[in-house]
From TrEMBL:
Family, per entry: Belongs to the glycosyl hydrolase 16 family. CRH1 subfamily.
Database matches in Pfam families: Glyco_hydro_16 (PF00722)
Biological process, per Gene Ontology: carbohydrate metabolic process; fungal-type cell wall organization
Its job: Dual chitinase/transglycosylase that plays a role in cell wall architecture. Chitinase and transglycosylase activities are coupled. Required for the polysaccharide cross-linking at the septa and the cell wall. More specifically, transfers chitin to 1,6-beta-glucan in the cell wall.
Species of provenance: Xylona heveae (strain CBS 132557 / TC161)
EC numbers, comma separated: 3.2.1.14
SUPFAM superfamilies: Concanavalin A-like lectins/glucanases
Location in the cell: Membrane
GH16 domain: residues covered: 43-259
Keywords: Cell wall biogenesis/degradation, Glycoprotein, Glycosidase, Glycosyltransferase, GPI-anchor, Hydrolase, Lipoprotein, Membrane, Signal, Transferase
PROSITE patterns the record matches: GH16_2 (PS51762)
Protein name: chitinase
């Protein structure tokens, strides 16, 4: 079994596995697509260019617009969402994000990136100790804007933001929800401009952040989310025993893998009915030479180091990288199990979820626990569990 090399901004990936994934591991293929961090990769162009924003109203009446990350090669014209884990269609009206025992949950990530815009998700969260539902915007350099929901508190949405993954836990603020996040659909909205972020629930503003309040005089920069981000909808085990103690406490404790929902259905679940995306124009002064993709031209990873280009976003196979996008292995048939010709052992090609926070390694925040009294409704999926 190939042990993937770990990576961060101080430990860049080697040339044979040049792409540093969202979860801090080096590889080729899908590692070079969504979530590939150019600051931690072998070179800035090791990561494939990112598809530009697309305004659309996504209604989850089927899974036709969802492609597994074991099949997606960067062609955002052919899919809307890239999945890992097990999304399941339910009653032709919503998708279930599932988390069965011995898994790390389910993630849907948008194929297109957003460089400022308004995004809303109409959804129901999961419930239970250690179970975390998330609706976030996450850039490849780990700028992040969050709605997160702890399964032991079904009347609170946590709003949060990070600049390049720096763990400033004072950034978190709770927003009250009028009724159960598990029983009832609510629409959660993030309105992100170059100067501010607004979090709203069911049309009511819950929080506004002004960019000017994020100035760090020591670092001489605004620590404000400012780089192209994917929309991510996820259900993950914050209370996984292998996570840091701070994360487990923040998530409300260890996951109960014998919960009533798991006994009834075989998994914990969250439901997503609709996602609406409205793209804004690139920021003033942006480096615009095309209309197809975003790239970085500096490891600083800030607003002024992003360029809008016509560069290709599609890899030919799962052994390709940003610097060799036409690399092909005819024996692989674009399979995640293919062996890389450039290494003696199989290079990792499809990153997996880690069971830890998507943008930051841990959290020392705490949440007020409340016991959910809502009862599950029986479900039958049109897709295998």
């Amino acid at each position: 079994v190939y042990a993937a090399t770990t990576c961060d901004v101080n430990n860049k990936c080697p040339s044979d596995t040049p792409c540093c994934s969202q979860y801090g591991q080096c590889g080729v293929g899908a590692y070079c697509l969504g979530g590939c961090d150019p600051r931690s990769s072998f070179a800035l162009d090791s990561c494939a260019p990112a598809p530009v924003c697309k305004s659309e109203d996504f209604k989850f009446t089927n899974l036709d617009g969802v492609t597994a990350n074991t099949k997606y090669l960067g062609d955002a014209s052919q899919t809307n969402w890239v999945s890992s884990g097990q999304p399941i269609m339910y009653q032709g009206q919503q998708v279930l994000l599932t988390m069965a025992p011995d898994t790390v949950g389910t993630l849907l990530a948008s194929a297109h990136y957003l460089w400022y815009g308004k995004v809303s998700a109409t959804m129901k969260t999961s419930r239970g100790a250690g179970v975390v539902t998330a609706f976030i915007l996450l850039s490849d350099v780990k700028d992040e804007i969050d709605f997160e929901f702890i399964g032991t508190d079904l009347v609170t949405a946590q709003s949060n933001f990070y600049f390049q993954g720096i763990p400033n836990y004072w950034n978190e603020k709770n927003i009250s929800v009028d009724s159960s996040t598990f029983d009832d659909y609510h629409t959660y909205e993030i309105d992100w401009t170059p100067d501010s972020i607004t979090w709203s629930i069911d049309g009511q503003v819950g929080r506004t952040l002004d960019k000017n309040t994020t100035w760090n005089a020591t670092a001489n920069r605004y620590e404000f989310p400012q780089t192209p981000a994917r929309i991510q909808l996820s259900l993950w085990p914050g209370g996984l025993a292998s996570n840091g103690q701070g994360t487990i406490e923040w998530a409300g404790g260890l996951v109960d893998w014998n919960s009533q929902d798991i006994k009834n259905f075989g998994y914990d679940y969250a439901m997503v009915k609709e996602v609406n995306v409205e793209c804004y124009q690139p920021p003033s002064g942006a480096n615009v030479t095309g209309s197809k993709s975003y790239i970085y031209n500096s490891p600083a990873g800030t607003n002024d180091t992003v360029a809008l280009t016509n560069d290709n976003t599609i890899l030919k196979s799962f052994i390709a990288t940003g610097t060799n996008m036409s690399a092909d292995d005819s024996s692989s048939s674009a399979s995640a199990s293919a062996s890389s010709k450039s290494t003696k052992s199989a290079a990792p090609q499809v990153p997996g979820m880690s069971g830890s926070r998507p943008g930051s390694d841990s959290s020392s925040s705490s949440s007020t626990a409340s016991s959910g009294s809502s009862q599950p409704t029986s479900s039958s999926s049109s897709s295998g569990t």
